[in-house]
Write a structure and sequence with these properties.
This protein is of the alpha/beta class. The protein is built from 12 helices and 10 strands. The strands form 3 sheets. The protein has a 6-stranded mixed sheet with strand order 7-6-5-8-10-9, sandwiched between helices. Bound molecules: zinc ion (ZN) (2 copies).
Length: 384
């Protein structure tokens, strides 16, 4: 709303109250600081409310990276506890940070996240990502203690595969660790801090990596691939633009990770989405809203699941796919075909020795099979 003062001065007015506005969201909506914070809290609660599945005093594992989104999630959860009556957030939270490397920077970052949590009187569990390869039943140590890990399997993998593949693998491994630790702490729900902007990036990455059929669980509000633990994304209606304002207005201190300079496919998509957000802010919103409507009609009973990403492995399709065609031409290249032999086009694509897509449709989905082809068998993540 515009207010004319005198002849020349224009003041923007908050769309919720009469105070002068300080924040412009999506180049469209003006808010004052107070109404903006209230509105962001409301979006978080509305998203959780929609699910109507969180029961009172439910144990929830909340995953923190320390970045701006995670810092805001921490504040939103804390704010939920301070409210009274029906508005009070009634969950029992357990906070977790996965340390991604064994470098000093990562340890420093972990210490800063412990401090972040202490300000709200929360404890933080910490775990090194290499624990993923541990065969122990319990991999957690006491809260607020940085675990000592000697293994550096993932760093060795990082040096040997392309950045796009490594990035995709880390996402899958983190997801499996969230589920494993949730089970260890007896939590049936996990919260992650993904925003609309991040989900838009994830959607485009998914499509580029051949994970189109996994969009529903990867981008939607709930990831229900694991039967006993669900992963929820209560910040999916909040954009990174709002995260930045929230951090500024509430003077929060996110832990920025300057060592994390992404290269490869994901960084190209990242730049594209950041540019979209700056110039066409409504587009990101539309992208995610559209993804929300994509559901799969797959029968979820009695289907095989990929051991890496837990998605359904769908083989039964009447038509030959691009994967079939690629495998067929590959097989032809390896065959010393006799010119007089009839070459029969078979769909023998689950052959173990398939050099291009190992284990495809047997234990891995198309996209994971491609990832697998760049890794050693001992490095393949497994479902617990
Ligand atoms: Zn206001
Ligand atoms: Zn998979």
């Amino acid at each position: 709303m515009l207010k004319l003062i005198g002849t020349y001065l224009l003041i923007m007015i908050c769309r919720k109250c009469d105070a002068s506005a300080t924040i412009l969201i999506r180049k469209e909506y003006w808010y004052c600081n107070t109404c903006f914070i209230t509105n962001t809290n409301h979006k978080f609660r509305a998203c959780l409310g929609k699910s109507k599945t969180i029961s009172s005093n439910e144990k929830v594992l909340i995953c923190l990276s320390g970045g701006a989104e995670s810092t805001v999630l921490l504040d939103l959860v804390h704010c939920g506890f301070t409210l009274n009556g029906t508005k009070k957030l009634r969950i029992i939270p357990f906070f977790l940070h996965i340390i991604e490397t064994t470098t000093e920077d990562s340890i420093k970052k972990a210490n800063l996240i412990i401090e972040q949590c202490k300000q709200y009187n929360f404890n933080l569990y910490l775990i090194n990502i290499n624990e993923y390869y541990s065969t122990n039943n319990n991999i957690l140590s006491d809260p607020n203690i940085i675990p000592k890990t000697k293994s550096d399997t993932l760093n060795n993998i990082r040096l040997n595969v392309s950045p796009s593949i490594y990035h995709d693998l880390i996402i899958k491994i983190k997801r499996q660790l969230f589920l494993r630790i949730a089970k260890e702490l007896d939590c049936k729900t996990v919260f992650t801090a993904e925003t609309t902007t991040q989900l838009a990036k994830k959607l485009l990455c998914n499509l580029a990596l051949g994970r189109g059929s996994q969009v529903e669980n990867d981008i939607g509000f709930a990831d229900l691939r694991e039967k006993s633990v669900r992963i929820l994304r209560p910040m999916k209606d909040i954009m990174n633009e709002e995260i930045d304002y929230f951090v500024k207005v509430k003077q929060l201190s996110p832990v920025y990770d300057y060592s994390n300079t992404e290269i490869g496919l994901q960084s190209v998509i990242n730049n594209f989405v950041v540019d979209l957000q700056d110039n066409y802010p409504s587009t990101i919103f539309t992208v995610c809203k559209t993804a929300d409507k994509i559901g799969s009609n797959e029968n979820t009973n009695d289907v095989k699941n990929c051991t890496l990403c837990q998605s359904n492995i769908t083989l039964e399709s009447a038509n030959l796919t691009a994967v079939d065609a690629t495998i067929f031409s590959r097989q032809m290249c390896f065959k010393q075909a006799d010119a007089h032999d009839d070459i029969e086009v078979t769909r023998n694509i689950s052959e173990d020795k398939n050099p291009m897509f190992p284990s495809i449709y047997e234990t891995l989905c198309y996209s994971c099979s491609r990832t697998y082809s760049e890794l050693d068998i001992c490095e393949i993540p497994h479902t617990n």
